[in-house]
Write a structure and sequence with these properties.
Helix content: 55-70%
Order of helices and strands: HHHH
Protein name: Transposase
Organism: Nostoc minutum NIES-26
Radius of gyration: 13 Å
Number of strands: 0
Number of domains: 1
Number of helices: 4
Structural class: mainly alpha
Length: 63
């Protein structure tokens, strides 16, 4: 998870926030992994979702 989302660089350390963000990261990785139309890695899919709202909507529709 650190390679795709740079988890080690995250500075969230108070209360339950680290556990909550870990769960959110796992959900994001699972959704990006389930999206099969684009044949690239998780990091590139994350970048594509950040740049293209249509692709982001397609990934979020997998929920």
């Amino acid at each position: 998870m650190d390679v795709a989302l740079r988890e080690d660089d995250c500075r969230i350390r108070k209360d339950n926030a680290p556990q909550n963000f870990t769960i959110l990261r796992q959900i994001a990785i699972n959704l990006l992994g389930k999206e099969k139309r684009v044949k690239v890695g998780i990091k590139n899919k994350q970048f594509l979702a950040a740049m293209d709202n249509n692709y982001l909507a397609r990934v979020l529709a997998l929920i």
